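Weekly modeling sync, notes
Attendees: AB, CL, MP (scribe)

Item 1: holo prediction request
CL wants a bound-state model with S-adenosylmethionine before deciding which constructs to order. AB pointed out that an apo prediction alone won't tell us much about the pocket. Agreed to run with the ligand included and paste results into these notes for async review.

Input as submitted:
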Amino acid sequence: MTSEPVDSAAEPVDPTVVSRRLARESLGQDDPTGWFERLYSAASEGDAVIPWDRGTANPLLVDWVDTAEPSGAGLRALIVGAGTGWDAELIADQGYDTTAFDISPSAVETAERNHPDSKATYEVADLLNPPAEWHRAFDLVVEIFTVQALPIALQPEATAHVGDFVRPGGTLVVIASARDDDTPDDAIEGPPWPLTRAAIDAFTGPDLKLIQLNRSPSPSAATNYRWQAEYLRD
Ligand SMILES: C[S@@+](CC[C@H](N)C(=O)[O-])C[C@H]1O[C@@H](n2cnc3c(N)ncnc32)[C@H](O)[C@@H]1O
């Protein structure tokens, strides 16, 4: 019997390994968002895999579109932490004038490369310091897995900015991993830091109301749960 040399390059890459290492380094340097650019940049060189890139829109956002049947003609949408652009494309296809932003320039480049004929506009921006002109400027705001990608101490500020983008009469859709309210913050070894029910309620305000909330098993692991929340501003 002959033994074959192990070709490590042929081993499948565990998509979480590189991202976890980059996140740990970044958080250790008190730079909670720097690892996103390093990860997207490494992925564009073929040295990493983006763990959350499904190559399609989020199934819960697809469900929302199928149920709500939104008609975006003449309306503006904002996609928060848009990553590689699949959710932005789904929303732009509903007729919304769609802006999609991410803190990582390489994510924006990847989204533009993925979708060369896109009707969406991709931009670099920071949810923690967004452009002033986005204040209450959008008829539809979609936030998927961005707030939970930030350390818990930063989540209230990020959550407040997400809600602030919604104009009167506008809708906010939030999709996030769920955690039980009685799981203490320090028991979570993020990223991600999944959202409690209280964190879902924190998107509301005096005139931004939670109108629908579902909690369903994650397609990837039935022991994990996902929130799908819809809010409406009076
Ligand atoms: C877990 S990924 C989710 C990406 C995408 N929403 C999805 O569901 O596939 C979080 C995204 O948020 C972006 N992000 C993290 N912090 C951000 C910030 N402060 N402002 C804008 N984008 C941010 C990251 O670069 C990354 O693309």
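Recorded for review: DSSP finds seven helices and seven strands in the chain.
Action items: CL to compare against the apo run; MP to circulate these notes.
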